[in-house]
Amino acid sequence: MTCSWTYEHYRFCIAKAQDQGYILLPFKEVASYPESQPLIILRHDIDRSLTRALAMARIERELGVRATYFVRVHAPTYNVFEYNAYRALKEIQSLGHEIGLHFEAVDFGHINGEAPLEVFRREKAVLETALDITVVSAAAHGEHSRSGPGHNRDFFQCFTKEQVGIKYDAYDTAFTKEMKYISDSYGIWQEGCMCNHIGKYPRLQILVHPCWWFKDHPFE
Ligand SMILES: [Zn+2]
Ligand SMILES: [Zn+2]
């Protein structure tokens, strides 16, 4: 099958992984399996579109896999308290997926002259309150801000997970160095499409941004 950004190809990738014996799961469940179990952590950063995220969540439900969806609280394009966004996030959760925090505490703190630690705690509290959930997984947002004064990804080099009540940091070496990590950031598979990596490594973290994927056309 030719690689593309269609849901058809996404389904192909997931099916390929299932055929090869991988369990596809959210961050919060990794510790439930022995080291010998091949697995893929499915990670989705919701940068812009909850509509696309919900479409992907429904497809994954059909295929019997679950993922972690990382949600922003400062996104200019969606708001967790808005009616339709709230409903979409609740549906994603009801489909069995994990909701994590796509945090921006370093960026937001720098712009507003506030301490990143406090910003992080408020971001997490907002998401937990909005959806009435407990958040245990976090992933830094914003590869675009590499040129800025700091990076959200540096947060856990300065603070511990315990300080903010988080169990899983998506950029922890356990998930980026001790297992194969690939990403479709910028709409490009830097190391080739995910389907080429499945079967080559016993454990992977695959970051798929729902905003790049579509049914028939990217403008749909
Ligand atoms: Zn492919
Ligand atoms: Zn992001």
Query: What do the pLDDT scores average to?
Result: 95
Tell how many strands the DSSP assignment holds. 8
| CATH superfamily heading | Glycoside hydrolase/deacetylase
Which CATH architecture?
Alpha-Beta Barrel
Give a list of the ligands.
Answer: zinc ion
Helix count from the secondary structure assignment: 7
Number of domains: 1
**Main sheet properties:** 8 strands, parallel
Shape: globular
Distance between the termini: 23 Å
Assess the beta-strand content as a share of residues.
15-25%
Q: What's the gyration radius in Å?
A: 17 Å
Order of SSEs:
HEEHEHEHHEHEHEE
Class from helix and strand fractions = alpha/beta
Low-pLDDT runs of 5+ residues are: none
What do we call the CATH topology?
A: TIM Barrel
CATH class term: Alpha Beta
**Helical residues, percent:** 25-40%
Reconstruct the topology from this structure.
Layout: H1 7-19, E1 23-25, E2 39-46, H2 50-63, E3 68-71, H3 83-94, E4 98-103, H4 105-112, H5 116-131, E5 137-140, H6 155-158, E6 168-169, H7 173-176, E7 180-183, E8 203-207
Bound molecules: zinc ion (2 copies).
Please describe what this structure looks like.
This protein has 220 residues and is of the alpha/beta class. The protein has a single domain, classed as Alpha-Beta Barrel (TIM Barrel). Helices cover 32% and strands 16% of the residues. It has 7 helices and 8 strands, in the order αββαβαβααβαβαββ. The chain has helices at 7-19, 50-63, 83-94, 105-112, 116-131, 155-158, 173-176, and strands spanning 23-25, 39-46, 68-71, 98-103, 137-140, 168-169, 180-183, 203-207. Strands 1, 2, 3, 4, 5, 6, 7 and 8 form an 8-stranded parallel sheet that branches. Helix 1 packs parallel to helix 2 and helix 2 (50-63) runs parallel beside helix 3 (83-94). The radius of gyration is 17 Å and the shape is globular. The mean pLDDT is 95.
